[in-house]
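Notes from the pairing session

We agreed to fold both candidates in a single pass and log them together. This is the raw record for the first candidate, unedited. Please don't reformat it; downstream parsing expects exactly this layout.

Candidate A
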Amino acid sequence: MSEENGHKTINGKAEKCPYSKACGGCDLQGSRYKRQLSKKQKLLNELLGEFGEVRPVIGMSDPLHYRNKVHHAFKRDRSGNVLSGPYEKGSHWVINVDDCMIEDEACQCIIHTIRRLTKSCRIKIYNEDTDEGILRHVLIRRGFSTGEIMVVLVSGSRKVPDLKRFISQLVMIHPEITTVLLNINHGKSSMILGPDREKLLYGPGYIKDILCGKTFRISAKSFYQVNPVQTAVLYSTAISFAGLTGIETVFDAYCGIGTIGICASDHAGNVIGVELNPDAVRDANINAEENGIKNIKFYNDDAGRFMRRMAKEGQTADVVFMDPPRSGSTKEFMSAVIDMAPSRVVYVSCDPETLARDLKYFTAHSYRVKKIQPVDMFPFTRHVEVAVQLLRTNDAAFVK
């Protein structure tokens, strides 16, 4: 086996992941990386070409093992062996995965250790059919620049026998682990983490990472992009699209833990970040403080409602960053943007289809698309991120 063109190969032929058919997570398994990028480019041209030229997709020099957030569900086979992996597509059947081509290798190694320790420490694996057992999932996050690792054990019960010995052995084998949490999830939904209860078992309860020269604190439930190499490319592109000169008021919608707003703060007059997740807002405020940033404020609120209140009070923003979920933005939020009338909107999208829908709304309401730059954040999958620069049609910058 060798590496060729960003793909594992055997005798020059692209190797296909043995789990891909059941897993369904990687739609483009078996295709060489250049061909994957070509497929994405073609799709983007079809979906977004009506709005302007779609620049070539920015790919990775090494697209393997990029995913620094790894989740596995657990099960036991008939012989009592502990297995783990993702759910089979469209079901709750756990596929045993020993070596995923996109998951971080350090995270996978820790999962293999957890499998062994659950047996020696006699920690029962949860059985979804009988609603018996304890350990349901594990979620692992690794800071790409810092190397710090968070392990979140998801249990159906707060009482886990022999847990102290389990954690002691785990961190002894893997000293790179800096924090361990126990999340309690009694629910029977597809949600990995329970909504409320969390117990700190080891370390500070969070990890840190460095992105675009800024340090970020990441909690278990906070959103943080899973491909750190390409995230730096994406955010640098988005900030360049904002055209900041150091005096602008910037509105960062769906701001999460403040990554885009904090990275843009050095180039802006002041930044306002709005996020609905209170855990993320807490981390965002800490991140601003730890980076010594004075010109940014974060608010726990719905971005559309917050922006409408700003407009009613006569407040304005020169630039709006928006990084909505895969479902895209809402008409309520986009109409609030149009009412405020910023000169520039930078839309960061993880779904080209919902992006195309939202761009139609913006271009029907006094905005035009100037630049479209795709960034391949998710090699081997059909997903791709896109940064779009939108300018008001009466903005002089549009004719430059």
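Candidate B (folded immediately after A)
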Amino acid sequence: MNEQKLPHDHGHNNVESIRNHLPEEAEIAGVSEAMKQLGDPSRLRIFWLLCHCEECVLNIAAIVNMSSPAVSHHLRILKSSGLIVSRREGKEMYYKTADTELAQMLHHMIEKLGRITCPKEESF
């Protein structure tokens, strides 16, 4: 493969190696979409909550001090981006974080960046 010259030579020796590892747009689109969805503070709080428990809309609304319609709106967005999943039990819908590598990595990233400690399992 021919080495492409960059417009400016800043003396970096690893540009070609970095270029060879640069993700394609399609490869990184899912991560970008997930991060966009978590850019809203309310969705971020709901996502974090659902990383630690499975809950229904009314309980989520009470925990995060929001209206049920507002929580439902955020849940739809999180679900459409693949970050959470739902299940029906009778008339009730329950939500939790999707069991995906991306969701787990985002969960840990949120806690590291925010210096948030995970609650103990038995406290929920």
